[in-house]
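Field log, afternoon session.

UNIT: design team B
ACTIVITY: writing a sequence onto a fixed backbone
BACKBONE:
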């Protein structure tokens, strides 16, 4: 029986040892990135990692460098390594198309590029609208804006995962075992592959953060309120549960302010990012919609340390404040 593992992980340096262990158990590795110039030369060691990454816009530079180190080792061990991310590859093609002087209306109506363009434009536009609203608008308008963005983002992820699943279905069947790199938000990808691959191919998700959580005496999946809201819309596009949706949206605004943004060179024993995310998730889970409404005007222009102090101060208030936890809804 062929084995396909969908590795759902955080793109943080501290996760590299867990990613390494998971990847080494497979014959082929499919990366969550489009084909890049010089990639084959880089994994063979013929091009330096710094020179390879220089023209690439990477979100997490330290993580990317460590991943390249790992990929060179895996290639030397005989692993097949491929870059497969059709949605992002299509976006790059669209950018090149526009750079040549073309306009959106010039995109072929029967081309997947048009669907990618529309999904990306809708999500990006909704995100920009949210940023504008959260800076100057009311709490209620900000809630509406983040829900609109989450729905548009979910539609974008549905298309992105669908395109990647289509591309991977035939590729993974060429190897006895395959590892598919994915961010945690791409949980749907596992289900799409499971449904599209023949019965002799076993497909399983690997929640790589779970092992780290267990090492800290914790359990469960590491999804913040924003990811929970997006996943809700990915799997249930037409759902309407205003109370729950509004609470997740409100908590996500607080969570995004208190979460540590800077990339840390943490190791696979201390897990600084994982611990920070877990602490932030636990904090916002205790906040009611009224708590978030109270905090909103105070933290929207605050730094992360200042926002954390405000949340901590609110949580220290005796039980006189309005407060509803998940179980109360």
């Amino acid at each position: 029986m062929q084995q396909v593992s969908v590795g759902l992980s955080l793109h943080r340096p501290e996760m590299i040892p867990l990613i390494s262990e998971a990847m080494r158990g497979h014959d082929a590795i499919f990366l969550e990135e489009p084909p890049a110039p010089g990639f084959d030369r880089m994994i063979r060691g013929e091009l330096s990692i710094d020179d390879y990454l220089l023209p690439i816009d990477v979100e997490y530079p330290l993580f990317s460098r460590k991943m390249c180190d790992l990929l060179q080792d895996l290639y030397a061990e005989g692993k097949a390594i491929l870059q497969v991310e059709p949605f992002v590859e299509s976006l790059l093609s669209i950018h090149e198309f526009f750079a040549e002087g073309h306009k959106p209306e010039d995109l072929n109506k029967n081309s997947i590029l048009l669907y990618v363009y529309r999904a990306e434009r809708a999500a990006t536009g909704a995100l920009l609208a949210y940023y504008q609203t959260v800076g100057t608008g009311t709490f209620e308008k900000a809630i509406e804006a983040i829900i609109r963005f989450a729905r548009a983002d979910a539609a974008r992820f549905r298309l992105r995962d669908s395109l990647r699943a289509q591309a991977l279905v035939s590729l993974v069947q060429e190897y006895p075992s395959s590892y598919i790199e994915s961010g945690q938000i791409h949980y749907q990808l596992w289900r799409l592959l499971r449904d599209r691959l023949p019965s002799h191919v076993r497909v399983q998700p690997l929640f790589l953060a779970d092992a780290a959580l267990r090492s800290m005496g914790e359990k469960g999946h590491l999804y913040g309120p924003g990811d929970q809201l997006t996943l809700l819309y990915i799997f249930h596009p037409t759902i309407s549960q205003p109370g729950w949706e509004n609470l997740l949206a409100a908590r996500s605004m607080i969570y995004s302010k208190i979460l540590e943004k800077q990339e840390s060179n943490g190791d696979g024993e201390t897990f600084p990012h994982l611990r920070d995310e877990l602490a932030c998730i636990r904090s916002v889970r205790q906040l009611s919609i009224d708590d978030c409404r109270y905090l909103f005007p105070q933290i929207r222009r605050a730094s992360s340390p200042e926002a954390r102090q405000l949340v901590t101060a609110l949580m220290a208030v005796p039980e006189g404040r309005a407060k509803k936890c998940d179980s109360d809804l």
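LOG NOTE: The CA atoms of residues 134 and 142 lie 5 Å apart.
NEXT ACTIVITY: expression trials, pending approval
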